[in-house]
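Re-run requested by the PI after the first attempt was lost when the workstation crashed. Everything re-entered from the original request form. Ligand of interest: 1,3-dihydroxyacetonephosphate.
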Amino acid sequence: MLTPFREILEERRAAGAAAGAFTCYDATTAIGVVRAAEARRDPVLLLVAEASFRSPSGRLLLPALLAVADAARVPVCVQLDHVDDDDLIDAALAAGAGAVMADGSKLPTDDNAAFVSSVRSRAPGAGVEAELGHVEGGEDVAAATEAGALTDPDEAATFAAATGCDCLAVSIGNVHGRYARPPALDWDRLRAIRERVDVPLSLHGASGIPDADVRRAIELGVCKVNVNTELRERYLAQLAAGLPAARDGLRLLELEESVIDAVSDVVAAKLAVLA
Ligand code: 13P
């Protein structure tokens, strides 16, 4: 069932858990994500990457994910992820996205705050996530990446209060895509941010972060965890493994089902860590 972004995050926070947010490049992935969430009776977030939404066929993906979310037996919210383009944000809101990530993290802090505040005022019914400091790495690439600018706890408090965002993504040593070296998350920084900031916190770049560290982040106040790379790796591995047999008999449906199962396995394992 379609459920407001903030409602999902607050419920998870109260439960001492985190909502899994999974990037979906197609409806097949979304079906796999929701299947795992339903089996565990967990809420879940479906993310649309900016590159997807920007692509010629991308505008069709959001309505497809909304349909999957609507039919789900658990709370689901569809979010446009990491966008700094007002037109794209407005298009996603008009298409019914339950949340957007207004990512001004490459801007000076004041400009980032002004950008997020402006999105907030245009999206009264939707969730707005912001990012302070910068989580390095590309959403849709897999290059090995070093950590970017870290979130300043005092600045985070002012920023969250000034923008009215529903969720703040923190940069504490996490990166998108593959880690150039084993992640070393800055726990003192996360603790300090949590002490100063009331709104739900999110951890991006969760692929490659050991389960124990994800758990520790949740204990220190994170209640949304974003995953993309691990899902894509498993999707493509299953596609490659299943393709020869499927091609022989033109068994497209079986191939798709096997990909849904593979995605579902990855998501179930992640959700077990987040619960
Ligand atoms: P990963 O690709 O590193 O899992 O990051 C996903 C993400 O943070 C999406 O916003």
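Saved to the shared folder this time. Residues 5-231+266-274 form a domain with the TIM Barrel fold (CATH 3.20.20.70).
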